């Protein structure tokens, strides 16, 4: 017997009217789910040393969210494949330095318990993303990573493909990112966007709704009611 769709609560920054369909939340990884800056700094340091590249990490960081080869092109770095190999190896070696942002695990498990579908859209390759996402212990219904089908952010393709994975409607979806490319991808996909102020970049213009901390996402998504203390390992 087919299950009855749960009534959806629109995000506060979109049409407040309730519509049918299951709610879905897509999230970027770096700077949204986990603080991976220490990992990226170490990996870029290895690139600088091995390939004698004098581009500072802060300049590399400005382009986060785009595919690695695109970033190399923007930084005028040649031999991008070899540089990427060095970066990937170094990233895997220091992946243990990444940590979930405070409150993020609780938010994700609360949303799962309340019937939300969750997905991840990242420009990080899957082999590097998967071990990081495992720290969250969350059942993501889709993980769209670099190297998959379609164009990368800021194109809408990975967001739309993630929604296909979730059997979700863009009108009932929200994307949380921390870079201008995330904002643009959401706009082009027709998906509501919330900017993560705890992340690494600016959202671009026009300025979108902004969450100051992970726990604020529950308010933006209409799930701000208090349900008692969160117990780790529980979805209640």
From TrEMBL:
Domain of life: Bacteria
Keyword Magnesium: yes
Region described as Disordered: 1-21
Keywords: Carbohydrate metabolism, Hydrolase, Magnesium, Metal-binding
InterPro entries given in the database record: HAD-like_hydrolase_sf, HAD-like_sf, HAD-SF_hydro_IA, HAD_2, HAD_sf, PGP-like_dom2
Family matches, as NCBIfam families: HAD-SF-IA-v1 (TIGR01549)
PANTHER family to which the protein is assigned, alphabetical: PHOSPHOGLYCOLATE PHOSPHATASE
The protein's name in its UniProt record: Phosphoglycolate phosphatase 2
Species of the source: Streptomyces hiroshimensis
Designated gene of the protein: gph2
């Amino acid at each position: 017997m087919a299950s009855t769709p749960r009534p959806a609560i629109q995000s506060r920054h979109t049409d407040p009217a309730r519509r049918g369909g299951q709610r879905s939340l897509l999230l970027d990884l770096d700077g949204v789910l986990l603080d991976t800056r220490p990992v990226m700094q170490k990996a870029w340091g290895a690139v600088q040393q091995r390939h004698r590249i004098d581009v500072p990490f802060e300049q590399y960081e400005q382009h986060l969210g785009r595919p690695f080869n695109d970033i190399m092109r923007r930084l005028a770095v040649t031999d991008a494949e070899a540089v990427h190999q060095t970066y990937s190896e170094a990233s895997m070696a220091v992946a243990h330095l990444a940590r979930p942002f405070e409150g993020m695990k609780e938010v994700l498990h609360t949303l799962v318990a309340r019937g939300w579908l969750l997905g991840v859209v990242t420009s990080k390759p899957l082999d590097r993303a998967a071990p990081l996402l495992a720290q969250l212990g969350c059942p993501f219904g889709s993980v769209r990573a670099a190297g998959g089908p379609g164009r990368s952010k800021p194109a809408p393709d990975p967001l739309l493909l993630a929604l296909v994975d979730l059997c979700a409607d863009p009108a009932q979806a929200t994307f949380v990112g921390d870079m201008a490319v995330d904002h643009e991808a959401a706009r082009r996909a027709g998906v509501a966007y919330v900017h993560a102020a705890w992340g690494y970049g600016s959202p671009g213009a026009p300025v979108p709704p902004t969450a100051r901390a992970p726990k604020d996402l529950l308010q933006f998504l209409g799930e701000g009611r208090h349900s008692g203390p969160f117990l780790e390992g529980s979805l209640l």
